[in-house]
Amino acid sequence: MKKLRGLLILFLVLAVVSAIAWGAMRFARFTSTTASAELPSTRVKHGRVILTVAARGELQGGNSEMLTAPMTGGGDVAITFLRAPGELVNSGDTVVQFDTTEQEFKLKEAEADLAEAEQQVVKADAESEALEEESRWAVVSDESDVKLAELEIRKNPLIAAITARQNDLALEAARNRLRQAQQDFINKKTASAAGIAIQKAAENKARVAAQSAQKTMDSMTLKAKTAGYVNVQQNTNMNMMYFGMALPPFQIGDTSRAGMAVAQIPDLKSWEVSANVGELDRGHLTEGQKVIVRVVALAGKEFHGHVKSIGGTTGSPWDRHFECRIALDDISPLLRPGMTSNLVITLETLDNVLWIPSQALFESDGRTFVYAQTSNGFMPQDVTLVRRSESQAVITGVRENTLVAMSNPDQNKPAAGQQNSAMKALAK
Length: 428
Fold this sequence. Notes:
The chain is α+β, with helices and mostly antiparallel strands.
């Protein structure tokens, strides 16, 4: 009986251990099957591929008129008049008016300086004429003295030698005074002309200052050159700004720095979309490619356009992008600057090619490969990349309808620590 009882206990222990081992194997197989089932996959397709690039941009007027704050030579200028956003204006209408109080004061000062300079010129002319007349009278007087001395010298043969010598000396002295008077006349005339030129230069300087002040004051009234509607710009002249801050539009009473864009009058006959496209698609874009534009604010409407220009690449090393400008071929009165637009740029159409989603193509160590399904699971298989866009990749080197993984299978396997924990949990 004791031996039978021992055998029975041993049999029960072996049965429990076998059950635990069988359960562990079933659990491991179940977790492996679940992980394989959760791995996203797709099949290699054959047919026509239309390579496109999707982007988002902002609608802008192609030949918009931008009204900016003038250069006043001082600090910020305050807005005293501003048209309402969306208000229609005609050519020559006032759109923005800045405070001209300081400029009016400067203009009055410049005009006063100009009036003073003009009077200085008049004064210099009068003084020059008076001095010239005085010098001319001195020359005439000295000429008379010379003639009288010449008449006196005719008596020399009839008078004493001493008196004759005195007459000679008097004539020579009169001639010296005449030469000095003539030279003084020339010098004073030249000096008067120089003084008048200086005063006229001061007058011209004052006139230029007055004209500049008038021009500056006139520039503080911004008028529309073309007919359209007013698009008020955002006010970036703020003491504190942070990333993601919603900037308010300009309003009456706000101040603006010189050169800041205050309002815009879009060209209703020319529209463009400015978009930032990823660096990966930079080599696929060329000018003239067709574009479909969907404006977010105008649901259900599509506009056609083409690539107008491609800018340079900018951005951080991990987020490189470049500016692409799209010219719209369709015109609508519903369009407004700043509207968000979704773009679909048609790059190329390929027929009878093999393609997969771009997520299913991997690159590592100079290799381009896919994870194709085999009897041992998903294994890497080298392929040749023909074309690639943001969503599709055209390849060769793999058969049609081959099942490929959309992500790295190694990253979907449970970690060893997780398996051990599961086995321990099952054992308990």
